[in-house]
């Protein structure tokens, strides 16, 4: 770990992690989750650009497609927009960029001429497989750096590799 990657031991934990404020535990937990994921997202942007040569938002589309059951790697554009909370017009641009890079294909959805289905290409699958260890490590390091031990313990059910740190 580089010096700027060291855990922030000389700084207090995120104020939302300390409690004692006006917020109920659910909102306090939500604020902590936002702070931690925001920190991870900032560090992940550079790794995503370096390893996959796509934007963070395009990376999120690739991740959604990669996690489809049965290895189909496809979803309707309307569902992607819904899951990511993105306007369909912005998603159309992102899909076009991914298609131009050879990472996704688009086709009319079966039985619905208006619907568009997006699928991963073999190139995207290969790049995601090659980059996944570095991307996962970036997320893990970010969470270790920006969350205290209690908060990391609470996340271990979702991110089992986090338990191995410190």
From TrEMBL:
A Gene Ontology molecular function term of the record: DNA-binding transcription factor activity
Coiled-coil intervals: none
Gene3D superfamilies reported for this sequence: Winged helix-like DNA-binding domain superfamily/Winged helix DNA-binding domain
Single biological process term from Gene Ontology: response to stress
UniProt domain HTH marR-type: residue ranges: 26-164
Region (Disordered): 1-20
Name of protein: MarR family transcriptional regulator
Species annotation: Streptomyces dysideae
